[in-house]
Specification:
The protein has 308 residues and is mostly beta strands. The protein is built from three helices and 25 strands. It folds into two domains: 11-138 and 248-280, Jelly Rolls, CATH 2.60.120; 141-243, Sandwich (Jelly Rolls), CATH 2.60.120. It holds the Pfam family Pirin_C.
Length: 308
């Protein structure tokens, strides 16, 4: 057991540079907490007015979760999918042993864009499996009764919350859900005490266990909680992450989630080789444009460990 925690994790700005010409705020992985359940990565890109061009790039061993807040995003992948994503919809891509995709903002001009991009590490039972993609345009809603003020309205994006389950495919016990808290309200979100959880403030003001995270900060809650009390003065929008603690080794580098340095090195070599399409395919409606892999560090990559 991890026990109850109230640990504030601040995001760091990561310049993506190049043709993407944008920066993101990254909260996971954190030096002390590499995962929350099977959630292993969280970026927020925006709010900004940008022309996003993320050219074809590879993934292994994880699922990408794209949850737009503002704007429209075009997703194309090596499984032949070409779809547009907008607010209230979920893109879920399962990499398995290898997939590649691109993400562009819609249109040729800069547009208002704001979204959460999250990764879920796949367990051994699924990480070497087939790649896949799902878009869910209708997701289940949930209402959390308020102790004070109006009830909180939620959307279960991934996994299960309070008996309400998302239709998206998952491979570990997990939850990802967005909630809107009304001004001057106080609610208790029910939690599974066997799972660890974290709350990310998207916008507004929030108080949790006498802590007041700023927007984009994550409040890590640990496990052993049957609920968490959230209160707000002006209103808030939050994203809840949680799940059964992920106990398998996890080596992460660039866009790859694996178990060993050798697996990462092999995936990089495969992407950079002339036979890259044999493992990662070709992204629909793209030519030779692609994002090259960076150089590996001159040290052996080790599994990430929790330090709390």
């Amino acid at each position: 057991m991890i026990g109850q925690r109230t640990l504030l994790l601040e995001p760091r700005e990561v310049p993506l540079g190049g043709v993407r010409a944008m920066s993101v705020l990254r909260t996971l992985p954190n030096r002390d907490i590499p995962t929350v359940g099977a959630w292993c990565f969280l970026d927020r890109f925006g709010p900004d007015e940008v022309r996003m061009r993320v050219d074809p790039h590879p993934h292994i061993g994880l699922q990408t979760v794209t949850w737009p807040l503002v704007g429209r995003i075009r997703h194309r992948d090596s499984e032949g999918n070409d779809v547009t994503l907008e607010r209230g919809q979920l893109n879920l891509m399962t990499a398995g042993d290898g997939i590649s995709h691109s993400e562009y903002s819609v249109g040729d001009d800069p547009i208002p864009l704001d979204a959460l991009q999250l990764w879920v590490v796949l367990p051994d039972s699924a990480r070497a499996g087939a790649a896949g993609f799902e878009q869910h345009t209708s997701l289940p809603s949930v209402t959390v009764p308020a102790e004070t003020g109006a009830n909180a309205a939620g959307t279960v994006v991934l996994g299960e919350f309070a008996g309400v389950r998302s239709p998206a495919t998952v491979y570990t016990p997990i939850v990802g859900a967005e909630f809107a808290l009304a001004p001057a309200s106080r609610v208790v979100l029910p939690l599974d005490p066997a799972w660890e959880h974290a709350v990310v403030l998207i916008d507004g003001d929030l108080t949790v266990d006498d802590r007041m995270p700023a927007p984009d900060e994550m409040l890590y809650l640990g496990d052993s909680r049957s609920g968490v009390t959230l209160s707000t003065t002006t209103g808030a929008r939050i994203f809840l992450l949680g799940g059964e603690p992920f106990e398998e080794d996890l080596v992460m580098w660039w866009n790859f989630a694996a178990r060993t340095h050798d697996e990462i090195e092999r995936a990089r070599e495969d992407w950079e080789s002339a036979e890259a399409a044999a493992r990662f395919g070709r992204v629909v409606d793209h030519g030779e444009e692609r994002i090259p892999a960076p150089e590996l560090p001159h040290v052996t990559l080790k599994p990430r460990r929790r330090s709390i």
